[in-house]
Design goal:
There is one protein chain. This protein is α/β, with parallel strands linked by helices. The protein is about 60% helix and about 15% strand. Helix 1 crosses helix 4. It contains 6 helices and 5 strands.
Amino acid sequence: MLARHIHYFLAVAEHQSFTKAATALHVSQPALSQQVRQLEESLGAQLFDRSGRKTRLTDAGEVYLRYALRAAQELQEGQRAIHDVGDLSRGTLRIAVTPTFTTYLVGPLVETFHRRYPNITLNVREVAQEQMENQLLADELDVGIAFDQAHAP
């Protein structure tokens, strides 16, 4: 089941009409009907009563509506979170430094970074270079700072 199915379902529920929902979504009515039919088949339940003038939710549709609204909200929040990570307004940065750097570099670096990006969480670890390289290769770190040349390819 795709986000499109949920989006289409919610539009039909809101407009109580396949035609009005299709217009609002800028899709053809047959395409919208087909997507809703696929959703109903995948759920094994009829979501809309199409017999009257208005398209109404069935009991199963009423129950599903609550979950579809929550799913749509979660998807929107996911999109916002991706945007926030992309523009550095929110997220986490995992950094490792060798013990040599800890005493004179980490404090000022963290302070400057936090002033510039207050909603980014810094996770700073002090590790030996060999461990750092292994953690970078295992995607357990985003950045590693060390004096010596890399040992890993």
